[in-house]
């Protein structure tokens, strides 16, 4: 279920004001952080880059100031949606004092499972894009939210492509459902109508009924909230059906790995709105890619928004602990004071315990994304 890179380490970590618990002071000067990422299932393709990005951040921080003056070791835990022992594993580790914080890069459905098991007991940094609204004490959600992704993208595409009939397709859990609920209003603001929506179990491979519904409703645009392998399978079927001639697709969660799986022939008129693309020509990203390639070499896992988020999460946690060492971490979020940290997507401050970062709109061109707008 989990693998450690070394001996158990413990140290006190800051919790947000109102937290249900605070860990007692510990003598050891090395932190043990649980890195919860999917190692299988439909989101398993997020795993390699997430592990690599987190390891790069730990290597950098351990060479520099560390985590509040302390070094760190990672404990990798499978956080796939079908990981049956996830809650029991985390509960055992937390109760034994064997982990001091959690970096979570997984679906929101898994986040809810983790919070029910150990929420409020140790700090949790949740790193990927998500639906928004997370306010559990001790949880720092630093990824971009659906509102910040969808509202400007739907408006921009609405002005230029004039879609009237949108159809929403997602996996059946909280992120797609909440995203589509918000999108209904954004679509109306842009002059369109949501004419249909459907939700599919994780692991779906037959999309024939969904494709029939797209044809039947004469959709102009598809809002796509499938994840991992599911979005690959759907977009392949969509491309084979030739539907890109009649409608375009917009997603918040098609990353570089998924695009490679979809294939260039099936990616016509596919748009993605996100806070990070590997192709970003920014100073922060160019420097990040240089460090990433130097550390892992030519066979490094493909960079994408999910993977880089664990790099950011590690640096966020280090900045938080550094603020704690200076005596102000508990107020860092509550009083609105900015918390700066190293980020590949220029997310360098926190407002109300949520990161602020640019949002981009990109169009798939072959096997890469070309950024066409910054919001």
TrEMBL record:
CDD domains associated with the record: PBP1_NHase
SUPFAM superfamilies associated with the record: Periplasmic binding protein-like I (SSF53822)
Domain Leucine-binding protein: 31-323
Name of one Pfam family that matches: Peripla_BP_6
UniProt keywords, alphabetically: Signal
Domain of life: Bacteria
InterPro entries: Leu-bd, Peripla_BP_I
Family: Belongs to the leucine-binding protein family.
Name this polypeptide is given: ABC-type branched-subunit amino acid transport system substrate-binding protein
Annotated source species: Variovorax ginsengisoli
């Amino acid at each position: 279920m989990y693998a450690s890179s070394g001996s158990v380490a413990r140290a006190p970590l800051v919790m947000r004001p109102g937290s249900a618990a605070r860990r007692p002071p510990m003598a050891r000067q090395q932190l043990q952080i649980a890195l919860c990422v999917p190692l299988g299932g439909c989101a398993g393709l997020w795993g390699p880059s997430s592990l690599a990005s987190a390891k790069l951040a730990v290597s950098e921080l351990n060479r520099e100031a560390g985590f509040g003056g302390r070094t760190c070791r990672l404990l990798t835990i499978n956080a796939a949606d079908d990981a049956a022992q996830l809650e029991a594993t985390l509960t055992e580790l937390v109760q034994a004092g064997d982990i001091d914080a959690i970096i979570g890069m997984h679906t929101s459905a898994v986040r809810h499972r983790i919070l029910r098991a150990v929420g409020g007991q140790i700090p949790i940094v949740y790193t990927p894009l998500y639906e928004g609204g997370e306010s559990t004490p001790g949880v720092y959600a630093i990824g971009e939210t659906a509102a910040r992704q969808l509202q400007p993208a739907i408006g921009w595409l609405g002005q230029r492509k004039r879609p009237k009939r949108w159809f929403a397709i997602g996996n059946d859990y909280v992120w797609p459902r909440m995203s589509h609920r918000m999108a209904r209003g954004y679509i109306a603001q842009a002059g369109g109508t949501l004419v249909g929506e459907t939700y599919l179990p994780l692991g779906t491979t037959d999309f024939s009924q969904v494709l029939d519904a797209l044809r039947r409703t004469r959709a102009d645009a598809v809002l796509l909230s499938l994840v991992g392998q599911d979005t690959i399978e759907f977009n392949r079927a969509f491309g084979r059906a030739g539907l890109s001639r009649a409608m375009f697709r917009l997603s918040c969660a098609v990353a570089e790995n998924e695009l490679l799986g979809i294939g260039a022939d099936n990616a016509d008129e596919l748009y993605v709105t996100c806070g990070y693309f590997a192709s970003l020509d920014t100073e922060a990203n160019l420097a990040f890619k240089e460090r990433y390639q130097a550390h892992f070499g030519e066979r490094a896992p493909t960079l994408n928004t999910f993977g880089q988020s664990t790099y950011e999460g590690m640096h966020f946690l280090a900045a938080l602990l550094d603020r704690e060492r200076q005596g102000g971490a508990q107020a860092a979020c509550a009083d609105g004071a900015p918390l700066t940290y190293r980020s590949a997507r220029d997310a360098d401050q926190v407002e109300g315990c949520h990161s602020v970062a640019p949002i981009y709109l990109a169009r798939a061109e072959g096997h890469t994304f070309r950024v066409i707008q910054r919001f």
